[in-house]
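Run folding on both entries below.
>entry_1
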Amino acid sequence: MALAGIILLVPNFRSPVVRPMDPAGMLLSISGLAALTYGLIRAGQVDGWGRMDVCMPIAAGLVLMVAFVLVELRVKEPSFDSRMLAQRVFGGGNASMALLLFSVAAVTFCNAFHMQGALGYSPMKAGLADVPTAIGAVVGAPLGARLVSRWSLRPVAVPAITVAALSFGTVGFLDLHTPLVWIEILLQMQGLSVSMVMAPR
């Protein structure tokens, strides 16, 4: 269904300017992110940061990402121009989106462990319990786009990010006695607020 929707509904935007490939940037960014991700995952597996199999991949990933930025600054047509991050609107917007997506990933994992590990739900039941997040996203995306077209991005994004942050923080107060209905309301608020920020961006 998703593939059919993409083919039928998503417009095919093509840049009128053909840009050359950036093999060095692609290789450095992919390898850097892969090493950094592996190190962070390994830290969670072994429950420690001081081991060599944790420190080395993280250090290598950071070095490769710094090399990526330095190489992109020298390339005539970089795949990612890091100088754009110095622009307050662009840099601040991307930083907030990065933190927002990081929080979404963290809460998703936390919620899965809470549902299955603490509450004893089956994977199917835990998945169904996350449906309110999707419903909130379906409602929030067009609502956010409509409100931004009327009021501009900032008056919509700031309250939405605030609600998202509060809803993410509330996850830390969930326990075995929290009624499921409150968890569902919290998940719906998360889906609604996050989609209201992401869709207009």
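>entry_2
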Amino acid sequence: MRGRPRLRRAGLPYLLLLPALLLELLVHLVPMVIGIVMSFKELTQLQIAHWGAAPWKALGNYRVTVDFDAPVGATLLHSFAVTCAFSVLTVGLCWLLGTAAAIFLQENFRGRGLLRALFLTPYALPVYAAVITWAFLFQRDNGLVNHVLHDQLGLTGDRPFWLLGDNSFVALLVVSVWKTWPFAFLVVMAALQSIPKDLYEAAALDGAGIVRQIRRITLPSLRPINQVLLLVLFLWSFNDFNTPYVLFGKAAPEAADLLSIHIYQSSFVTWNFGTGSAMSVLLLLFLLVVTAGYLLATSRGRKSADA
């Protein structure tokens, strides 16, 4: 009889986790399996109502997708290059801004709490409301961006189109960095609290300036947190769908054609669900390989540093 209470206590955590596991199964795993199956079928708008009976295409969708000499593969390769450039710049700028702001706000001064709240505002705002606001700001004739840059400062010869052409990449990058960098700021600011103040005091007594203290104490102490932070920022930016969709609509400009919106267009605009599913599976495999390689490299780096 004594074993039953112990068994109940041991099984209680798993019982509490069961709803979350079932929800994860229904929301993520089941659609992922269905998407993988769809990638092997010739699935268009005509067969979507009975997608289970659609003709089996085996690796045909994947051959079309990776044929970079054909239009489908060439546009996908271009979208991949744009996404890589966008992700690298977003991650780099978010980390740089977040780290600089977190280090700056470590010192006690009047108004520090207000600045922290203001810096976190973009992260607290709903994504759709924030991006729609930026879409109005980037309007050519009535937007505040052109009003300041062209009318007030005279930095541009004419009112540029920010949501069309090559400038669309800059607009997308600005919006993405603006709404994402507060997360990096929050993570780094929390990590800085664990660094002992004695280290900075000892370094100051030895004559180390602020820059040297950051290089020798702050950045090495933040290395474990930064390794996780950079990976999370990369995955978020590489998979970002809400920002380009709300900013540009269903048809993103060529300069801002991220993989997420490109796969959406292939699936729900041209109604070629088989090809779109194949692109999604390839994107998943790429992210898995990059994540595994990054984790392996960082783990080896930690072991060599400890040794």
